[in-house]
C-alpha cells in the first residue's frame, strides 16, 4: 500500500503538472505514453521487438499526433505522404512480411498490431486533442474527475451493496450495483461541477457524465478482457503498485475517443 501511495503521488504530480502546461509538453508526454502503451500490448502478445512490422506499427501509433503537433506548434511537417497514406503503407508492409517470413509472422499478428496501434494511438491522441482546445484544461479535468468518481462509486457501492455480478467471466469482482453506483456518483459530480464552474450547460454535463460513466467502465472491462486472454495480471510494471500505463489510462483513452467520435468536443 505504501508503494502504491508513493507512486500515485509522484506519477499524479507529473501528470497533472503536464496537463496544466498543455501545448507541446503535454503532447510530447502523451506521445511517450502512447509508445509505452504499445510496448505493453506487444509484450502481452509476446512478439519480438526486433521484428520490422512491430517497429513500423509502433511508429504508426504516432501518426494521429502529426496534425496535433502542427496545431500546437503552428508548423507544418513535410512527410511526403499524408498520415493515412503512411498508415496504409505500414499495413501493406505488415502483410508483405507474412510472405517474407514464410508465415512465421502471421496475418493474426498484423491484425493485432493494427488494432493495437489504433486503440492506443487514437486513444492518447484524442486525449491530447481535447486538451489542446481553447477550454481544454477545464474540459479535460471535468472528464478525468468524472472517470475517477465513476471508479470510486463503483468500488464503494459494489463493496457495500454489490450482489449481482456484472460480467464474472471477464471481471469477477464487478457488480451491477457497483456499476450503477458509479453512474449515479458521476452524474452528481457533473451537476456540482457545473454549478460551481459553469462549463458546458447542465443538460450537456448530465449527458456527458452518463456517457463517461458507462464508456469508462466498458473501457475498464475491455482491458480486463485482453489481460485475461493473455493471462497477465497487469499490462506492465512501470508504475509500482499500479501496474502499467494501460492499467491507469484504460478508461481514459476509450472515453476521450468516444467523446471525439460523438462530436461532443469535436
Automatic annotation (TrEMBL):
Source species, domain of life: Bacteria
Keyword Transmembrane helix: yes
Presence of the UniProt keyword Transmembrane helix in the record: yes
Reactions listed under catalytic activity: a 1,2-diacyl-sn-glycero-3-phosphate + CTP + H(+) = a CDP-1,2-diacyl-sn-glycerol + diphosphate
GO MF annotation: an example: phosphatidate cytidylyltransferase activity
The entry's keywords: Cell membrane, Lipid biosynthesis, Lipid metabolism, Membrane, Nucleotidyltransferase, Phospholipid biosynthesis, Phospholipid metabolism, Transferase, Transmembrane, Transmembrane helix
Membrane topology label: Multi-pass membrane protein
Transmembrane segments: 6-39, 51-69, 75-98, 110-130, 136-157, 178-196, 202-224, 245-265
Localization of this protein: Cell membrane
Predominant location category: membrane
Pathway field: Lipid metabolism; Phospholipid metabolism; CDP-diacylglycerol biosynthesis; CDP-diacylglycerol from sn-glycerol 3-phosphate: step 3/3
A Gene Ontology BP annotation from the UniProt entry: CDP-diacylglycerol biosynthetic process
A GO CC annotation given for this chain: plasma membrane
Enzyme nomenclature, EC number: 2.7.7.41
Family: Belongs to the CDS family.
PANTHER family in the record: PHOSPHATIDATE CYTIDYLYLTRANSFERASE
Protein name from the UniProt record: Phosphatidate cytidylyltransferase
Amino acid at each position: 500500500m505504501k508503494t502504491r501511495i508513493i507512486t500515485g503521488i509522484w506519477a499524479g504530480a507529473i501528470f497533472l503538472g503536464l496537463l496544466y502546461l498543455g501545448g507541446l509538453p503535454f503532447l510530447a508526454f502523451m506521445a511517450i505514453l502512447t509508445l509505452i502503451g504499445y510496448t505493453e500490448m506487444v509484450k502481452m502478445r509476446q512478439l519480438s521487438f526486433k521484428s520490422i512490422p512491430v517497429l513500423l506499427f509502433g511508429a504508426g501509433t504516432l501518426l494521429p499526433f502529426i496534425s496535433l503537433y502542427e496545431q500546437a506548434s503552428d508548423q507544418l511537417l513535410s512527410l511526403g505522404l499524408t498520415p493515412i497514406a503512411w498508415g496504409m503503407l505500414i499495413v501493406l508492409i505488415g502483410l508483405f512480411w507474412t510472405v517474407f517470413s514464410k508465415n512465421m509472422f502471421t496475418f493474426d499478428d498484423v491484425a493485432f498490431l493494427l488494432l493495437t496501434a489504433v486503440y492506443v494511438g487514437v486513444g492518447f491522441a484524442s486525449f491530447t486533442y481535447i486538451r489542446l482546445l481553447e477550454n481544454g484544461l477545464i474540459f479535460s479535468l471535468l472528464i478525468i474527475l468524472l472517470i475517477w468518481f465513476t471508479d470510486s462509486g463503483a468500488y464503494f457501492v459494489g463493496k457495500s451493496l454489490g450482489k449481482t455480478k456484472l460480467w464474472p467471466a471477464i471481471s469477477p469482482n464487478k457488480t451491477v450495483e457497483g456499476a450503477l453506483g458509479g453512474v449515479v456518483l458521476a452524474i452528481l459530480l457533473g451537476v456540482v461541477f457545473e454549478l460551481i464552474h459553469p462549463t458546458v450547460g447542465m443538460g450537456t454535463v448530465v449527458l456527458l457524465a452518463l456517457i463517461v460513466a458507462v464508456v469508462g467502465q466498458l473501457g475498464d472491462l475491455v482491458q480486463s478482457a485482453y489481460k485475461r486472454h493473455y493471462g497477465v495480471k497487469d499490462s506492465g510494471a512501470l508504475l509500482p503498485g499500479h501496474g502499467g500505463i494501460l492499467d491507469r489510462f484504460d478508461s481514459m483513452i476509450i472515453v476521450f475517443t468516444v467523446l471525439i467520435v460523438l462530436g461532443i468536443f469535436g
